[in-house]
Amino acid sequence: MAVNLFAPNPDDIFPVAGVELGFARAQIKSWDRRDVMLMRLCPGSHVAGVFTQNAFAAAPVQLCRQHLKAGADIRALIINAGNANCGTGKQGLQAAQATCKAVGLALQCAPEQVLAFSTGVILEHLPVEKIIAAVPQAVASLSEGNWCEAAAAIMTTDTVAKAVSQRVQIDGTTITVTGIAKGVGMLQPNMATMLAYMATDARIEQPLLNKLIKEVADASFNRVTVDGDTSTNDSFILIATGKSGHAQLRSENDQGFQALKAALIAVAQELAIKIARDGEGATKLITIEVEEAASVEEAHRVGKFIAHSPLVKTAFFASDPNLGRLIMAIGNALPQLDTSRVNLWLGDVRVIEGGQRAASYEEEQGARVMKPAEITVRLALGRGAARTTVWTCDYSYDYVKINAEYRT
Amino acid sequence: MAVNLFAPNPDDIFPVAGVELGFARAQIKSWDRRDVMLMRLCPGSHVAGVFTQNAFAAAPVQLCRQHLKAGADIRALIINAGNANCGTGKQGLQAAQATCKAVGLALQCAPEQVLAFSTGVILEHLPVEKIIAAVPQAVASLSEGNWCEAAAAIMTTDTVAKAVSQRVQIDGTTITVTGIAKGVGMLQPNMATMLAYMATDARIEQPLLNKLIKEVADASFNRVTVDGDTSTNDSFILIATGKSGHAQLRSENDQGFQALKAALIAVAQELAIKIARDGEGATKLITIEVEEAASVEEAHRVGKFIAHSPLVKTAFFASDPNLGRLIMAIGNALPQLDTSRVNLWLGDVRVIEGGQRAASYEEEQGARVMKPAEITVRLALGRGAARTTVWTCDYSYDYVKINAEYRT
Q1: Which of A185, A190, A324 sits opposite B122 (nearest CB)?
Q2: Tell me: domain A10-277, CATH 3.60.70.12, correct?
Q3: From CA B1, how far away is CA B282, in angstroms rounded?
């Protein structure tokens, strides 16, 4: 039931020099599909990551943090679907370490140069021997052209693989930004989305990359929500292989940095929006624009309150312009709000004016703008000049069905 | 689909000396039912109230706050179902004032001695002339024995009327506590539930009553949640008519105060639990006991995170012991939690031990305890001695259905 979302056309997804991707069937669950993805990075690549804030952060997330903190020269990433390796204690950590070791052996690097990721069911031990057995198969398939296959291999309840690519000029050189991601439930990323991997051949120093990834995450994955639940395995990784020929980027003032940042944000936002389009049971993509807030944080808070309200989400599913639920969510987000300054639009129709139903508003207009599969809510708070955009989807019968039957 | 909830037996609901209740058919909506309720209080009654924190507090809530703040000798309450009189600006305030005035005229008191309440659809103007026209009918039916009828008149999407009564001894005198409430969506009360009215014939001074109502709300209505959304019209009113013969209660140390407080909390908790049982589309009542927290606030935060997670709620609907979703919710509530100290029970089965799946746990045990319509989750955080209990219900197909079709 994804909203206007189609599998990526391989012609639109450009390889990134220095990144090869492979995949394998490890049969983590009793399914017949690729469920392991491997990325090999060329020497000299810089890698940055942001991860879930959940206290029950999965074993691979804990290990990734260690490996990145140690400043290791990361050379490979391995991702499995079907099991999250979370709430698995010491045994889980050992399983993640064993995975890194197997990849290191196969690619001739140290285990600390490998990042492992898992997504799937929580609190069950990872069948690590199956992943280790699948490594040679993944290595054999390594190729720079495999981004779309990689996107498919990391899916769980996703209905469509998610990949986005963009090219941009830096200093006369064309550089590429390509990313893949998966959603689609337990999804209110906090610092990162469930799993997203982006790579560029741009040349950029590690400290600048570390700063950049936070800005990219804040402008994209941190602004999408499906159900308000933050997963234990959220990870967003940004790789810069440095294979392109432009001068190394060292500061935000360097020529080309802004162009690169814009391309990274554009790719990340498109991936984030794809996640909302493919939210569990989604029939609508809802874009919430919050304007005239006192701060970006405040704008974000109000956007999330609207996006998380089950009453708002079920009204969108019904294509019902239920304005009362929208103002309820706004009033809960900001108890001290002067409601008489609030204006709200559904699509191009002004529905709330000065905190009340707009005099010009007629129910038929609301019904008209609520019908399409993509709806924009625009809210002006009358408190300042800050703004943000949040993306979400509706709650349908299928949301309940998918999540009631997930483990069966 | 209420969970083990039946209409109150009128024999179990005791009148409170000094409180008469009446009702009328005002046809606020095109329905054939009683939709206006009137309470007349004897002179000398003390009244305290707590209200929604939502910035879009409805017009009658704003007016109630004024009337209570002014210290007026409250003599009557009028409640209508079918329209919330919220987001209605100055006209809404005038409508609430006109209602108070009409009741004052009929009962020979000032408008400031009347509290008006509304519940129903938001952002539509109150058909105040219909309410005014219904006042004589409501006055004509006033009687001390009408609590059950009053509970039915204030229902909206409630499937069952909610009334609870208890008797307790103070200083050798039997006093009565009786309350009614309505739910059942847009419900995460913040200081109060949607609408709850409790009365006692106990003699208690106003300042002590004002303090007491907050404690009663915190122990009951503030611990129940259906969907995490806080309504614009939440109001909880506590009336003490002083008609009984015991010595006036002036301080918490006075004889009988603790007995009265216990009775008030017991009645309020039972009303709160009835609201969870009748949550929109509910098929399960879920009691979440959080223990070993560093503070009551922390215990409450964790309980609410579990109770609000749509993934947890859909798993309960499916009777699926999906432990991963429970630990996800706990980890999100307390990002700094030492997960290795966490223990969790479903019913009598220990499912999580030291942050991992309990060694003794087998899936069939989980399936067994998830089957009944009433399930207790017990969580020990290993951080301190504070504890709380939170009540909620599951998310079913009918939750989506009820809320998708609410306005049609």
Answers
A1: A324
A2: yes
A3: 6
